[in-house]
Amino acid sequence: MLHSLKSVVIFGFSGIPLIFLIRHRIIDLVPDTPLNILTGLIILVIWNEIHFFMVHRLMHLPYFMKRVHYVHHRSRVPTVYSVYSFHWFEALLLSTVPVTIALIIPLSATAIFIFPLVSILLNYAGHCNYRFWSGKAPGFLAFGTNHNHHHSRAKRNYGFASGLLDRINNKLFNKS
Length: 176
Fold this sequence. Notes:
Keywords: Membrane, Transmembrane, Transmembrane helix. The chain is an all-alpha fold.
């Protein structure tokens, strides 16, 4: 519970650097049109998948697994209570999704500030210990199943909501 509380605080305050960078015109914003909001949310979800995969893969290196990521893996079976159960350092890295992409691609303010809701809904889906699809789900929809396997084995399924980056990683590095 303490780790989750720390993570929630870190994620909550992650908007401060965004606001600072926007106010100092380091991050450009596009108008809040429905198309810009939708496009921004799609970009953020895609970037979140890439960002999460990279951070999560890093966390599985022996140094970080022993000192940082073990906190999240205390939950052998993921539950909604393990969604935010991170070491503070991992929470800090994971909280940088919007700021890292907004520095490169202008987004709408509404998309940036709606994204945490989208992210938490996907995160809850990945940790709720429920299989959303009977049979074999398409890779980008198998997040609940994939993350259950990850927590029980901790050797594959590093993606957030999609198995696509795991499949690419496995093909590039000849893993089964």
